[in-house]
Task: inverse folding
């Protein structure tokens, strides 16, 4: 059945090959992509996926993503398109917007949403384009401290992210002693730097953000507050971590991390009254037109309607009791993993986690994160080395990030995560003590990991 799609596209080739040759080797190139996908499916099924930004989308999401919605051009917005034949695409985009607001408990009089961003990075760039003039100032958590590239990342030598080339960026940091965001220093620096926009959002931070404090700092400087909830949007939709919406002007997100949809981005923006001055004069938000224009025609062309379809399906799933139970399990599993690793003698940055990820500090374990990550990779344990290692961070030169969302989607519970912690520890032991038996040891653990992982069901399309 599933093969049909592939055969469809190559049936002429097959026919020709069939006529001209019966040599089986000739057939193989025809199925090149199919065979690569099969290998990837195998890798995902028999490995332990601990990369905190990844997840396994449902079959329904993938089917919507693989649908005919891919074929349609629809530049513009519902009701104002530059193409004909968009009546169904309009209906889809409106439905997706409605579900996005509903999934996060938002009133459509106070909030609007743009569902067209291709992913999280373009969504952030669109926000800056909308509300910060060229070379205007932004402040985000520095990348080595757990922020994202698109929060204005640069080094002493080079502007790395386009968000630091086209906007002026001054990062804020975590306190190197505690691992928590240093809000006091952010407040001080914001008073000097006068940012137009402050970003509250992280890719590599295991604690809740104090949005109240961030909003207060933004207000002191007349800055907009953007929450980039890319990593935690699923947790927020389920109500298991604090929501940023009450305190922020704009909220951006990806849809494929804890939210479990396909790869895309969303931008939520406030509507209505922004502020009232001492004389009672109201200032209104004008974010809706600024953000919509920044996404299209500012930065993007035609929306990815197949992705919007996948996101709409994921958002409906995100409103079910099962999704809430899933997110609670994500948190419980993360705690179980954290505690098990602490029991094995590991040091966790901040001593634990409020969300779906932990940061392991390997400095005390006589090895660096890079080497450990390579060995874990060899035994099919997938984790993330923090970019802190590439861009030298004093705090986390050996930082490694572990997340629970993907394996929780496969049905693992707390007990299983204890087992995962054992595999992590076994891998680490080989790493600390490289012996001549290295190859054998790796093969042994890898076989155990594959047997363990293979027991758990895999969401998605059965064959692909
Ligand atoms: C993942 C992430 C993004 C970017 O998402 P892409 O889809 O990879 O472009 C943006 N911000 C944060 C905080 C992220 O974690
Ligand atoms: C390292 O390996 C050697 C030889 O196999 C062994 O004697 C020693 O106990 C090991 N050390 C650790 C810390 O595991």
Result:
């Amino acid at each position: 059945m599933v093969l049909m799609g592939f055969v469809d596209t190559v049936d002429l080739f097959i026919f020709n090959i069939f006529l001209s040759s019966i040599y089986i080797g000739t057939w193989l190139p025809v199925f090149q992509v199919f065979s690569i996908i099969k290998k990837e499916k195998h890798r995902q099924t028999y490995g332990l996926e601990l990369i905190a930004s990844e997840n396994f989308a449902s079959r329904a999401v993938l089917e919507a993503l693989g649908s005919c919605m891919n074929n349609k051009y629809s530049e513009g917005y519902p009701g104002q398109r530059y193409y004909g034949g968009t009546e169904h695409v309009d209906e889809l985009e409106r439905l997706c917007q409605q579900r996005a607001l509903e999934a996060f408990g938002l009133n459509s009089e106070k909030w609007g949403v743009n569902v067209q961003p291709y992913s999280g990075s373009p969504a952030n760039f669109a926000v800056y384009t909308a509300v910060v003039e060229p070379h205007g100032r932004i402040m985000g958590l520095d990348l080595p401290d757990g922020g994202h590239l698109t929060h204005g990342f640069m080094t002493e030598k080079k502007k790395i992210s386009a968000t630091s080339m086209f906007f002026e960026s001054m990062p804020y940091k975590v306190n190197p002693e505690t691992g928590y965001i240093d809000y006091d220093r952010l407040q001080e620096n914001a008073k000097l730097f006068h940012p137009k926009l402050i970003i509250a959002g992280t890719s590599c931070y295991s604690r809740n953000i104090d949005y109240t404090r961030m909003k207060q700092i933004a207000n002191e400087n007349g800055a907009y507050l953007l929450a980039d909830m890319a990593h935690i949007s699923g947790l927020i939709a389920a109500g298991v971590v604090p929501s940023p919406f009450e305190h922020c002007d704009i909220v951006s997100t990806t849809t494929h991390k804890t939210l479990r949809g396909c790869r895309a981005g969303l931008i939520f923006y406030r509507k209505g009254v922004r502020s009232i001055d001492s004389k009672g004069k109201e200032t209104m938000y004008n974010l809706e037109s600024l953000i919509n224009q920044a996404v299209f025609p500012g930065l993007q062309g035609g929306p990815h309607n197949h992705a919007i379809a996948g996101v709409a399906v994921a958002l409906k799933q995100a409103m079910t009791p099962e999704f809430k139970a899933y997110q609670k399990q994500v948190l419980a599993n993360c705690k179980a993993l954290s505690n098990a690793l602490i029991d094995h003698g590991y040091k966790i940055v901040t001593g634990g986690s409020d969300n779906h990820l932990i940061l392991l500090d390997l400095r005390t374990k006589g090895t660096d994160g890079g080497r450990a990550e390579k060995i874990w990779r060899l035994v099919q344990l997938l984790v993330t080395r923090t970019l802190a290692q590439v861009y030298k961070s004093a705090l986390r030169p050996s930082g490694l990030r572990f997340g629970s969302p993907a394996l929780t989607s496969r049905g693992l519970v707390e007990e299983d995560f204890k087992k995962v912690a054992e595999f992590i520890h076994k891998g680490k032991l080989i790493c600390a003590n490289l012996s001549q038996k290295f190859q054998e040891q790796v093969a042994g653990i890898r076989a155990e990991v594959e047997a363990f992982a293979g027991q758990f069901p895999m969401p998605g399309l059965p064959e692909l």
Summary: Residues 321-343 form the longest helix (23 residues). The two ends are 11 Å apart (CA to CA). The first strand starts at residue 48 and ends at 49.
